[in-house]
Amino acid sequence: MQTDKTVSTGCRYREWTSLLLTAILCFSFIVYLYLYVDTTNITKAITFFKNIQGDPQFVGISGQSTLYPWKQRELIKNRTKPLLTLFTSWLDTEDKYLVHNITSVNWLALRPFVVPIVFTNEAAVGKVYARAGWLVLPVRVAAADGVPVLKYMYLDAMKQFESDFYTYVNSDILFTNTLVDTLIEILQNNQTFHNSAQSNSTSQHHTLIIGRRTNVFNITMEEGSSWSELTKVAKKKGELFRSDAEDYFITSSSYPWIDIPEVVIGRRAYDNWLVMNARKQKHQVIDASETILAVHQTTKDGNYEGMKKKTKEHNHNLLVTLYKNVQYSLGVTECAEYQTTINTGKISIIFRTNLATYCRIQ
Ligand SMILES: *[C@@H]1O[C@H](CO)[C@@H](O)[C@H](O)[C@H]1NC(C)=O
Ligand SMILES: *[C@@H]1O[C@H](CO)[C@@H](O)[C@H](O)[C@H]1NC(C)=O
Ligand SMILES: *[C@@H]1O[C@H](CO)[C@@H](O)[C@H](O)[C@H]1NC(C)=O
Ligand SMILES: *[C@@H]1O[C@H](CO)[C@@H](O)[C@H](O)[C@H]1NC(C)=O
Ligand SMILES: *[C@@H]1O[C@H](CO)[C@@H](O)[C@H](O)[C@H]1NC(C)=O
């Protein structure tokens, strides 16, 4: 009996152990699977977080600016106004959702130095971007079948928000901290420039900063939301676009936009006219191509979207009516009298001593 009992107990015992073992195995397997899947996520999350917090070049999705602390301290000092009011406008189309979402994250990351604004009369766009942290203003004046007139965007932005600089930028352009770094330098340089009386004309108090863009195909959210990634893809896959295409027009707060003709955005000719006019008016025109990285999100629509529109000649026709003969070639980036340059990390503004002959204003 004893033996039987032992045997049967042993047997039961063995059954128990194997059951327990199976259970443990099963449990471990589930835990392992869970952990495996989860750790890949955790690793991703950690990398992501490390990027946001540790890498000063990184733009957080939260939109918090992570500029170099010394620069932040230096600039914030006792200032209350932002450096730049940055505005754009677009018509809501599904095939541009990703492009605009990337722009949204990219521009928000330049806060608090930069204030992004979208001009729109479309409630859906206004709602989404206001929630994301953009400011939203209505398009007050439009032409050419509903395209915003450039000057009123500037005038409205200047009236409603105080900053050192203002600029319209095409909605598919992405920036890095080089935008902020360059503007800080120009601002600081401006004081020395005017104190040393190099300029004795008041028109030199008006500044226009322009530059060339770099085209990059099929930018992803990951690339567009990180300054270091964006810099990397621009270097690897980017192509510096032609020097007669200007996508941003950064002007000082006193700039006489009131006198500019009613050209619209997104149609050719106005960019070169603006630069040419500024040169003729003897404003301080600065080509910042060398220090501001402006990446164009090129999609399947290519690099000449405005040329496919029915009203593509709106600006040219208007300018020719007003001024007859318009020499657009005087308004290419390399004709700017000043340029920014960078030397071992230090940005400076230099006078261009030998402009090309085609830059000469008769
Ligand atoms: C900032 O403002 C405070 C108080 O007005 C002043 O004491 C300080 O010197 C200012 N700092 C700079 C860098 O201007
Ligand atoms: C981008 O934004 C639009 C709305 O503006 C939204 O419907 C869409 O899902 C967003 N995401 C992507 C990746 O396009
Ligand atoms: C203004 O500056 C130019 C050179 O930049 C100089 O030739 C001219 O004499 C100056 N005029 C006055 C009134 O100082
Ligand atoms: C970009 O993506 C499109 C598909 O939307 C593809 O046809 C095209 O080849 C891509 N271009 C490059 C340069 O990767
Ligand atoms: C540069 O200085 C002049 C003279 O003080 C001023 O009128 C102008 O607004 C300044 N420009 C910028 C961009 O601050």
Describe it for me?
This is Nucleotide-diphospho-sugar transferase domain-containing protein. By secondary structure, this protein is of the alpha/beta class. It has helices at 2-54, 69-76, 97-108, 123-132, 150-160, 177-195, 221-224, 227-237, 270-280, 314-323, and strands spanning 84-88, 114-119, 135-137, 142-143, 147-148, 165-168, 173-175, 207-210, 214-217, 239-240, 250-252, 284-287, 294-298, 338-343, 346-351. The protein has 2 domains: 4-37; 58-359, Spore Coat Polysaccharide Biosynthesis Protein SpsA, Chain A (Alpha-Beta Complex). The chain has 10 helices and 15 strands. A 9-stranded mixed sheet has the order 3-2-1-6-11-8-12-14-15, sandwiched between helices. It has a 4-stranded mixed sheet with strand order 7-13-9-10. It has a two-stranded antiparallel sheet with strand order 4-5. The longest helix has 53 residues, at 2-54. The chain is elongated, with a radius of gyration of 28 Å. The model is unreliable at 1-11 and 37-65 (pLDDT under 50). It binds 2-acetamido-2-deoxy-beta-D-glucopyranose (5 copies). Residues 77-78 line the site of one 2-acetamido-2-deoxy-beta-D-glucopyranose (NAG). One 2-acetamido-2-deoxy-beta-D-glucopyranose binds at residues 164, 187, 190, 194, 205, 207, 252, 254.
Q: Any idea of the CATH topology of the largest domain?
A: Spore Coat Polysaccharide Biosynthesis Protein SpsA, Chain A
The total of helices stands at 10
Bound molecules: 2-acetamido-2-deoxy-beta-D-glucopyranose
Instruction: Give the distance, in angstroms, between the N- and C-terminal Cα atoms.
Output: 122 Å
> If you average the pLDDT, what whole number results?
82
- Note poorly predicted spans: 1-11, 37-65
Beta-strand portion reads 15-25%
Please give the CATH architecture of the largest domain: Alpha-Beta Complex
Helix content: 40-55%
SSE topology string:
HHEHEHEEEHEEHEEHHEEHEEHEE
Q: Give the total of beta strands.
A: 15
CATH class designation of the largest domain: Alpha Beta
Cα-atom radius of gyration: 28 Å
Shape: elongated
Largest sheet: 9 strands, mixed
Major sheet: arrangement of strands: 3-2-1-6-11-8-12-14-15
Class inferred from helices and paired strands: alpha/beta
